[in-house]
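Retro notes
What went well: the complex prediction finally ran end to end.
Inputs used:
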Amino acid sequence: MRLIVDGQPIAFEPDDTLLAAMLRADLHPTGGGCLCLGGDCPHCLATVDGVAYVRTCQVAAKPGQVVERQHQSGYPALPETHRPGPAVTALNRHCDVVVIGAGEAGRAAAAEAEAAGKQVLVLEAKNGQEVVGIYHGPLVVARTDEGMLHVHAKEEVIVATGAAEIQPVAPGSELAGLVTARAAGQLAAAGIDLGRVVAVGTPPDGVEVQWVEGEIVYFEGEGQVEAVIIRGADGSEQRLECDTVSLGLGFHPRDALRRMGRDWRVRAVGDAARESDIPPCPEAGIVCPCSGVSVEDLDFIWAQGFHELELVKRATLAGTGTCQGSVCLPYVRSFLADRGQALQPPFTARPVTRQLTLGEIAAGAHHQATPRTALDGEHRRLGAQMERIGGWWRPWNYGHVLEEYWAVREAVSIGDVSTLGKMIVSGPDALELLERLYPTNVATIKPGRSRYVLLLDERGYVLDDGLICKETDTRYILTFTSGGSSHAEMWVRDWAESWGLDVRLLNQTMTLGAINVTGPLANELLDRAGLTDRPPYMGHAPGVVAGVECNVFRLSFTGELSYELHHPAQDSVKLWRALLELGADLGLKPHGIEALLKLRLEKGHIIVGQDTAFDSTPRRIAHEWAVKLSKAEFVGRPAIIRTNKIPLDKQLVGFEMDGPAPIEGAVIWYKDQFAGHVTSSTWSPVLGQAVMLGWLYYFDGELPATVTIDSRPARRVETPFYDKEARRARA
Amino acid sequence: MPELKRLPATRIVATPAALDAAEWPDDTLALRFAPDELLVTPPVANLALDDPHAIIIADSGYAGVWLPEAEALAFLEHACEWELPTQRPAFAQGAVAGIAAKLWFEAGRVLLIVPAPLIADFEERMA
C-alpha cells in the first residue's frame, strides 16, 4: 500500500497513521520539531488531499492519499485554482450530558451520569468525533467523517480529554528527531526505528534509551538532531550523541475546551482537570513555534510593560496559532512567574481548537433566505432582471427601462408591489394605539380613507413610512415599506403590548399580493377589468378586478393616477395576466424598480433608509407637515419638541443639474467645502435633466442655492420636480 | 424532491380565550401559532368566535408538504438545531434550514409549513 508525499510514493503499514508512514520513509512532516502523537503540537501538520493543517498523527494512512508537507517556516501553499470544497452537512443531536473523551476519566463520568438517569453522549476523537469547539448553549461541535456534529447539551458538558506532554524550549528544538516520551513509546511499538535514543526526564515505555537527568541546554544538529547538551545539577554540561531525543518533561491539562466554556455548564475531569506542571523558565529558543515567538521576544514585551498573560498573548501572538497554546502556554506562564513572582492562570480559549475548512465552518449555517412574491415566475418569464431589493427578489427592469417609464407617464403600466408591508389592526383600542404611535391625527381619518404617515422612534427619528387606512372605528390597515416591514411590525407589537392595549394584530404581507396600476389610462384599464366604481384619491374600497376580489387603494408613488390592488396571493398570477392582456392595446408595459425609482424621484418622494439617515427627523427631511404637535401624545413627540428648538444643521433637499445624473452617494461641495451627499439621483426623461435628493448642510444659517456635484454646478430646487400641483395623481 | 404547495387556510387572530373556546370541524387541522393566533386548514366558513374584534381572513400565505415521518426526521436532524417533540401529535415551530417553519407531527407523517414567499429557498435547502 502506498500514498503520495510531495509527489513521491511511499509505502505504509496497515495500522499506520500518516505520520508513522512518513517517519518510516524518513520524512518529517514539517521538517522538524518535537512530535507528540497526541494531536497537541503543530509539528506534524500537512496538507492532505487538498486540506491544509491536517494533524497527520491523527489520520490513518490510506492508499492514494496525496500529502504535501507543510514546512515549519511557512504556510501551506494556496491552491493555484479555485476549487470549491464539497458542502459539509451538520447533524444535530440532543442529550443531557456530553462527555468529551472516552478514556478512563471520561468513561467514569459517563457511567456516573447514566446511573443518575441522564441521557449521555460520549465523543471520542479516536472514534472519529473530534471536538473543535464549545459554544453558548452549551453547544459542542465535533468533526466527523460524515460531517459536523452539533451536540446540544441540556445539562452539562464534561471535558475528559486528558493531558498533553510538555514540549522542549531550547535552541535547536526545531530539529527533527525530537519526540515526547509517550510518542517515543508509540513509535517504537509501531516498529519505527528510532536509532540511538537519549531520554531526558521521564523515560518512554518499551524503548531502550540512554537516560539522562538535567536541564536541556540546546539540541545540536543540522536538520536532524545529532546530540543533546544537558546541564547537570552541579552546573556541568554533558554532550550526548543520539538519533532521537525522548522528552518526558511533564504534563499540562488538555483543557482548552473547558477554558472556552468556562461561563457555561462545562467542567473537566481526570487529567484534563489537573494542575499544569510548570517547566523551568526558558533561557533561549522558540517558545511558540506556531507564531515564532522566542524567549527574546518575551523579554522585549516584558520590558515594554506587558506583564499579564492575556496581554502578552495579544502582544506576541503566542498561543494564537495552530496549536492554540498547547506548546507555549506552560512556558509563557513559567516566564511570567519568573519575572513577576506569581503564577498566572492560563489564558482564555476560544473556538475553534482545530483548523477547519470553510465548508466545515459553514455546516448547518444558511444565508438569509430572500422571499419571492407570487409573481416571481411571471417576472422571470417576461425576461426581468431580478435583484434583491428591500429584502425581496424584485424585477429591476424588463429590458427596456425607458419604455417602462414612458408607459407610466403616457399610457398605463402595472408593477408588483406585493412586498409592501401590510398589517391589520383591530380591537377596541385600535385607535388609541395608532394615536399613540403615529404623529398624525388618526381620529380625523374617515372610514374608507387613507393617510400618509411617518413612523417615529422615541428620539423623533424616522423609522418608516406608509399609510393608515381606516376600515371602521375599530379596524385599520397599516402599510409599511418593503424593507422596513418586519421592523415596523415588531415596533407596533412591542408598543401595543407595552401599553397593554386591547388590539389584535395580523401581518398579512405574505398573504396578500399587490399590483400597482398606474398611468393616465389606469381608469380605462380598470374599466375593462370590471372595476368601474373606484375609490377617490387617498381612498380605498373593496372591488372585483378581472374576477379577483381586491381591496383597491388609490394613492400615487409614481406621480400618475394609480391604484394598488391588494388581493389574495394565490390570485396574483391570474390578476397580473388579465391586466397584461386587457391593457395590451393601451400601451401597457409592466415596470420594474428601476423605472419606479425614476418616477418617484421626479415626484420628490423619499425612500426611508435610502434618503433618510439614522438621525433623520421630520424637520430635517422637510416633512413637518406630517407631524401634528397639537396632539397630546405620540412616540417621539418630546424629542421633536426639544429638537425643534435647535437650529437645523442640514436638510434633505432637491437638486437639478444639466447633463447625466451623478452617482448616488456623490459628494456635494460648496465653495470647496464639504456640504453633504446625494442620496438619490436619476436622469429625468420628462424633464430632460438630472434630478437628485441629497443632504445639504447649512452655511452661515443658510442653505446654499448652488453647489457643485460631480465637478458640475447643481441648483437647489423645491420638490417635487415634476407636476408640482399633483394634478396628474389626483386626476 | 418534495414540492411545497400553498396551503389554503383561514387565519385568525383573536383573544386567547376565544380561540381556546372555539371548536373546529373534524376534517380540519388547527395550528396554534401563538396564544392569540391560529391557522385552520382547509379553510372554514361561517366561523363563530366569541370575539367581535377577531381578525379572520382567507389565507394562502403559507406553503406546506406532508412527508413520511422517517423522511422528515432524516431531513430535520440536519436542518433543525432545536429539539423536536417526541410525542404525537405535536406542533412545533422554529428555524428549519434557516427558515421560520411550522411542523405538525402525526403518527407516521409530518407536515412542514413555511412562508410561501420562501418556497424556492426551502425546497433548495431540502434537496
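What we learned: Strands of chain B lie at 5-6, 9-13, 29-34, 37-41, 55-59, 62-68, 90-96, 99-106, 109-115.
What to try next: split runs per interface for comparison.
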